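Worked problem 6 (solution included).
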Amino acid sequence: MAHEDSSNNVVWFVAGAAVGAAIALLFAPQSGKETRKLIAKKADEGRDALAEQGRAAMDRTKELYEKGRKVADDAAEMFERGRKLAEGAIGSVRERI
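Solution. The predicted structure is:
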């Protein structure tokens, strides 16, 4: 849960930094052409950063899915062993009766 919060904070920080940089560029003493190039460059950098965060989140999701799947498989196996033990115990009690 804490990992998700920090990832979310990073995304919002990057987005805020990008907006702040874009506003600063609009008020900077540069030609329009230079400003548009700089905005395009920063937009590309922001897109790349968001794409990387998305990939990291997807990797983490896959990892958690695999762990959950293993836990579920282990639980099913333990349940089956318990069921067999219970059946064996019931069978031995029936034999004694």
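Discussion: The CA atoms of residues 30 and 47 lie 24 Å apart.
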